[in-house]
Every structure is written in C-alpha cells, then in structure tokens.
Amino acid sequence: xxxxxxxxxxxxxxxxxxxxxxxxxxxxxxxxxxxxxxxxxxxxxxxxxxxxxxxxxxxxxxxxxxxxxxxxxxxxxxxxxxxxxxxxxxxxxxxxxxxxxxxxxxxxxxxxxxxxxxxxxxxxxxxxxxxxxxxxxxxxxxxxxxxxxxxxxxxxxxxxxxxxxxxxxxxxxxxxxxxxxxxxxxxxxxxxxxxxxxxxxxxxxxxxxxxxxxxxxxxxxxxxxxxxxxxxxxxxxxxxxxxxxxxxxxxxxxxxxxxxxxxxxxxxxxxxxxxxxxxxxxxxxxxxxxxxxxxxxxxxxxxxx
Length: 305
Fold this sequence. Notes:
This protein is mostly helical.
C-alpha cells in the first residue's frame, strides 16, 4: 500500500482546486442582482481610455494581412492593394481590392469591409461595410481548415453583430438583436473569440437590450478574460472586488484587476489602481492581498497571458 507524503498530498489538492476553478471560483448568488447604477463609472472611463489607446496603436500597416502562400482568384490584384496600403495610398488599395473581390477573393472582401469601417483613417460607409462583412460571413470560413480564415470570419461576425445590435440609419438597417446574438455566439464557439464573449457578457449584464442574466453574463466575461480581454478583466474586477459578497469574491476580483494592469500603459495602470483603492469596503488584509497576488500569478501562468 502506497503512503503519500505531505508534499504529494498538497500537489493533488492544488490540482483539484485548479480543475474546479472555472465552476466554483466565480459562483454567484442567483438572488443577488447588480444594477448598472451600482457599479462606479470608473469602468466606463477606463474602457474609453483603453479603446482610445487601441485605436491609436492600430496603424493600418500593421493590420494588413500578409499575402497567403497559396494562389486563389484575384491574388494579383489583392497583392497590389496590399502594396498600395503599405504606402498609405488607401484609395488605390481599395480599387485593387475591389477588382480582387469581384473575382471572389475572400481576403479582399475582408480588407474592403475594414476599409469601409474606417480602419484606414477614411470616412466610414455603413452600407458598403455591411455588404462586405456579409460577404465574408457568408463564405463559411468558420469551417475552414485555415486558422486565418476562421479568425477573419469570426471577426467579421463580431463587427456585423454591432450593426444588428444598434441598427444603422444610413444602411436602413433596424436593430435585430436575435441575429446579433447568433453571430456573437457563432464567433465565440468557433474560435473562442474574446471580443464576442465580452459583448455577450455586456448584452446579458446591462439589461439595455435583454432581460439581465447576471450569472450568464459573468460566465461570458470569464471566457473573455481568460483570452486576456482587458475590458472583461476590468469588469470582473469591478463586479467581484467592489461588490463582492465576501473576502473570497473580493480576492478573486482583485486578482483580475492585477492581471488587467500587467503590461499596460502607465495611464491604464494608474486607472486600474484607482479602482483598487476606490472603496474602503473592499479592503483586504495583508494576507488576503498576498493570496490575491498569488491567484493572479496562477491565472497568468494557467491561461498564458
């Protein structure tokens, strides 16, 4: 009969705790509801700052897809469009991509969708953006063996979902929430799309468009946060750290806030720190703070942020 030493038992216990974490760590009382007014407006402030910084960083040159090694229809025109875009001649790029799109080039459709979404510092055009997003989404790329095509298809569905959530007057498109939900869930399930999961969390949490389902929303936030989505991590931090029912909730919320500020700009780090120090009700003992830091380190390693 094998005798287990204390070290072996500790390893087994830690392993069991990690395996149960997705189910138990963020369990939330179904009777507990959080109104959107309950949370401070620090989340909205930090969300706007993060989105602004992302916009500033997303230079079109960096986001141009590399030419694919295989040949498909319209590849030559597509490559000319990429070359023009890399030289900041976006109008000429769009003309080449349109020729490529007419030949049925999937990547050209996506670049044109991005172009009309205003990704290249040009004027947005909802009508044309929706047209090319639908073209991308309709090509069954989620079932492709190519990871790039899968990701592009999911990205297109998330962008399209925004139009179906809010509607568009220029495109004469009325809000169709069920279509938006379907698109987001397809993107989330196919590639674990972080933004899709975050947007689903927002829809189910805020109550602006659907009857609030807090537990369901939190699950989507967790899926997104594990993909290193900054806004989802901040949201979990606010929900659990500022409004947690007990020290365990607050400890886990603080862990997500510590992860959120890692490798971020000084401005965002400062805003996260302001959330951490915002309320006396969420103060933790020194031992609990150390546990929160250890939990953040564990999450960071487990999900390879």
